[in-house]
């Protein structure tokens, strides 16, 4: 009865009457710092006087101190870093989407700038859209500098799509290199990755100084596929999925590419003449469509691959040659858009080996692009906030208390044995639980005394918490099915917010239930013996997620906290109690707030129940920017007709189903979504944190699909 910590009771004529809930301060937290040594670097806000809308590229003016920033919707601005007023000067208003721009190596002499445009803002449909590369001329003597709209020259264009790349940079040989994506929304449905007859999934190499008749570029005679029948002669390398940022090593001249993956892997690649980077036969060095037709040259393995547990959308960077960070000189520095991490690596061109690879920092910056200043600064753009950040060494900090290695040391429990939480640790329940292999779960919130929660009235939008907040979830298993007396705690997971950044940790309980120990960063797997109702003993595998895996589901798109939404928390006067305790930053509205139905309440509408189940178990990935690499939207508020699943062919594996659809109305067995829920191992859904099929959930989805209207 831990609620007794939060409610005061008054006795009236001998009868206990509930009074207004009161907040008890949580003062015992020891969850400060991290169990591992701090990263050597951090990203710090630079130029706080300026912000941008959806910035995607930053570069130093080759001939002045100015910095130039491109916005995704088609504007390029310049500004003076030392101008405290934050004045931004328009360099170009393209009127079309911009992915990147680059200065000609001889910009000081010829004033040429190249712009990569991915789409026409005036055209909503992708059909007929074209990606285009332009060359512009600087207006001579302009101050602040600006490009002459009349000088716009379209060098080359090709059909636009979902993954467009890209960048256009003059290389060390004086030719223009252009990187492109596969032009689709997923899984290379047009089979462009290994196809040399189009300009998708390639790096082009164009002679812009010697154009051929009828076009604004020429074909270098030593391009690798000039004499290949049917091949586009512009192609220099191919087999990319979505090369988001490439750059040339200023010393070796090698082109480094950050190639955004799909299902599991993100890649860093070095391109060479004729190199084939594998998409979509492979994703990195791993099979994707292994039986698809291959291109004419052998596969080139990535230099580095990152699993989606640590990197979700790679952002290519630069080989650092500045003097500001001597220890990084010659290292390729790159990062991740979703997780805000940055890494450095060194590569030996002779042995073709990575000789050093290290995580440099972990941030909450949504890194869309990097930039290098002449004085050695290394910049990062935050697409979400529109801010510019700068790499800096992490300053020395005062020693912090050791991070708790035992659950008993966290300050969350008055006594771990018996699971007695500390004063101020607030229990909560939700309307619809995530499937966790049949485990029982207990949930809590803990916050510093003055911390608050900002709730959102929408059912599926995560609540926002102040720094110092902790969410807690303890898992227990019945070692004999149906016998609560046999129940044992096996894991407690916590997610901690520090410096506006959420990090997850797991603790594994010991056999005598007296304490739990922090799981190592790489996670843990254990097997428990569970006696089933039929008398047989089941070997139940249990996966303790790595710290990176924790944030795989507790993602930015999910708001970092799972289950703490109005749709989940609006139950049994729980939100009203929280409001009376003063936990919220604003009062509850007078209107009725949304609440998810219990997915297994047969009295509720099956369509609402199914949508709730998909929201809870799938939508942390399968929403906009969630990282789920299928064009589907499974959020609760998304109308079914806009979810992209009903009667839609899968862009991934069909599981051998003839006429497979993601959801085939009336036919669960032809529905890939249902079949993935009912399997474990390869192609299972959810892809992580579960080793047993949720039979009740699968039956719900089966019944829902069966009753969906379908054409006869």
Polypeptide structure, described:
This protein is mostly beta strands and 712 residues long. The chain has 3 domains: 1-38 and 404-593, no CATH class; 41-393, TolB, C-terminal domain (Neuraminidase), CATH 2.120.10; 597-712, no CATH class. The protein is 7% helix and 32% strand. It contains 7 helices and 40 strands. The strands form 12 sheets. Strands 31-32-35-36-37-38 form a 6-stranded antiparallel sheet, covered by helices on one side. It has a 4-stranded antiparallel sheet with strand order 3-28-27-26, with no helix packed on it. Strands 4-5-6-7 form a 4-stranded antiparallel sheet, with no helix packed on it. Strand 17 and strand 18 form a beta hairpin. Helix 5 crosses helix 7 (695-707). The longest helix has 13 residues, at 695-707. It is globular. It starts with 8 loop residues before the first strand and ends in a 5-residue tail after the last helix.
Task: Give the topology.
Layout: E1 9-12, E2 15-18, E3 41-46, E4 55-60, E5 67-71, E6 75-79, E7 89-93, E8 96-103, H1 107-110, E9 112-120, E10 130-138, E11 147-159, E12 167-170, E13 176-179, E14 202-206, E15 235-238, E16 243-248, E17 255-259, E18 265-270, E19 282-283, E20 286-287, E21 304-307, E22 314-319, E23 332-336, E24 341-348, E25 353-362, E26 367-372, E27 378-382, E28 388-393, E29 413-415, E30 420-421, E31 426-428, E32 440-446, E33 453-454, E34 464-465, E35 470-478, E36 487-498, E37 501-509, E38 516-518, E39 524-531, E40 537-544, H2 547-553, H3 566-569, H4 574-580, H5 606-617, H6 672-677, H7 695-707
Antiparallel strand pairs: 1-2, 3-28, 4-5, 5-6, 6-7, 8-9, 9-10, 10-11, 12-13, 13-14, 14-15, 16-17, 17-18, 18-21, 19-20, 22-23, 23-24, 24-25, 26-27, 27-28, 29-30, 31-32, 32-35, 33-34, 35-36, 36-37, 37-38, 39-40
Helix pairs in contact: 5-7
């Amino acid at each position: 009865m831990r609620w007794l910590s939060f409610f005061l009771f008054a006795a009236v004529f001998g009868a206990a009457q509930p009074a207004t809930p009161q907040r008890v301060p949580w003062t015992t937290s020891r969850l400060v710092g991290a169990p591992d040594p701090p990263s050597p670097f951090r990203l710090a806000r630079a130029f706080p006087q300026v912000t941008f809308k959806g910035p995607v590229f930053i570069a130093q003016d080759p001939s002045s101190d100015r910095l130039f920033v491109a916005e995704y919707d088609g504007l390029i601005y310049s500004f003076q870093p030392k101008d405290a007023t934050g004045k931004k000067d328009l360099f170009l208003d393209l009127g079309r989407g911009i992915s990147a721009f680059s200065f000609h190596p001889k910009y000081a002499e010829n004033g040429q700038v190249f712009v990569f445009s991915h789409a026409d803002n005036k055209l909503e449909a992708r059909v007929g859209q074209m990606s285009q590369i332009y060359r512009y001329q600087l207006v001579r003597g302009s101050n602040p500098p600006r490009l002459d709209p009349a000088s716009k020259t379209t060098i080359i264009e090709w059909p636009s799509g979902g993954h467009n790349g890209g960048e256009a940079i003059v290389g060390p040989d004086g030719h223009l290199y252009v990187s492109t994506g596969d032009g689709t929304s997923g899984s290379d449905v047009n089979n462009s990755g290994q196809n040399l007859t189009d300009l998708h999934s390639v790096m082009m190499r164009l002679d812009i100084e010697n154009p051929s008749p009828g076009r604004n570029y020429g074909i270098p005679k030593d391009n690798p596929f000039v004499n290949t029948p049917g091949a586009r002669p512009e192609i220099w390398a191919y087999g990319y999925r979505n090369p988001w940022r490439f750059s040339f090593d200023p010393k070796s001249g090698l082109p480094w590419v950050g190639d955004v993956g799909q299902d599991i892997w993100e890649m860093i690649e070095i391109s060479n003449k004729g190199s084939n980077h594998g998409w979509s036969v492979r994703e990195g060095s791993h099979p994707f469509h292994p039986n698809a037709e291959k291109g004419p040259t052998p596969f080139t393995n990535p230099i580095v691959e990152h699993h989606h547990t640590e990197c979700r959308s790679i952002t290519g960077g630069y080989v650092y040659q500045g003097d500001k960070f001597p220890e990084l000189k010659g290292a390729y520095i790159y990062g991740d858009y979703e997780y805000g991490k940055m890494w450095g690596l060194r590569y030996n061109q002779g042995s073709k080996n990575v000789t050093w690879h290290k995580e440099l920092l972990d941030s909450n910056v949504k890194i869309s692009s990097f930039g290098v200043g002449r004085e050695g600064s290394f910049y990062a753009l935050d697409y979400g906030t529109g801010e510019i950040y700068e790499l800096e060494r992490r300053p020395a900090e005062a020693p912090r208390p050791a991070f708790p290695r035992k659950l008993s040391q966290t300050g969350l429990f008055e006594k771990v044995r018996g699971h007695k939480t500390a004063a101020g640790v607030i229990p909560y329940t939700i309307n619809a639980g995530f499937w966790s292999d049949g485990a029982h779960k207990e949930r809590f919130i803990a916050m510093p005394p003055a911390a608050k929660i900002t709730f959102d009235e929408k059912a599926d939008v995560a609540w926002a918490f102040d720094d110092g907040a902790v969410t807690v979830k303890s898992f227990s298993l019945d070692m004999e099915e149906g016998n609560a007396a046999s129940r044992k705690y096996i894991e407690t997971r916590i997610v901690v917010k520090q410096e506006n950044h959420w990090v997850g940790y797991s603790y594994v309980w010991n056999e005598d239930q007296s304490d739990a120990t922090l799981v190592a960063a790489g996670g843990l797997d254990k097997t428990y013996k569970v006696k089933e109702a039929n008398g047989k003993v089941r070997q139940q595998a249990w996966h303790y997620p790595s710290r990176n895996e924790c944030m795989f589901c507790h993602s930015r798109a999910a708001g970092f906290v799972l289950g703490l939404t109005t749709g989940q928390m609006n139950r049994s006067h729980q939100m009203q109690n929280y409001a009376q305790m003063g936990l919220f930053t604003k009062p509850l509205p007078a209107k009725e707030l949304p609440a998810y139905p219990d997915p297994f309440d047969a009295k509720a509408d099956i369509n609402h129940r199914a949508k709730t189940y998909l929201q809870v178990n799938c939508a942390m990935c399968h929403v906009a920017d969630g990282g789920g690499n299928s064009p589907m939207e499974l959020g609760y508020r998304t109308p079914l007709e806009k979810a992209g699943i009903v009667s839609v062919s899968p862009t991934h594996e069909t599981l051998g189903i003839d006429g497979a659809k993601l959801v085939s109305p009336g036919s669960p067995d032809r529905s890939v979504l249902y079949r993935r829920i009912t399997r474990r191992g390869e192609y299972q859904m959810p892809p992580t944190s579960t080793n047993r099929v949720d039979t009740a959930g699968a039956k719900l989805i089966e019944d829902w699909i069966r009753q969906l209207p379908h054409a006869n």
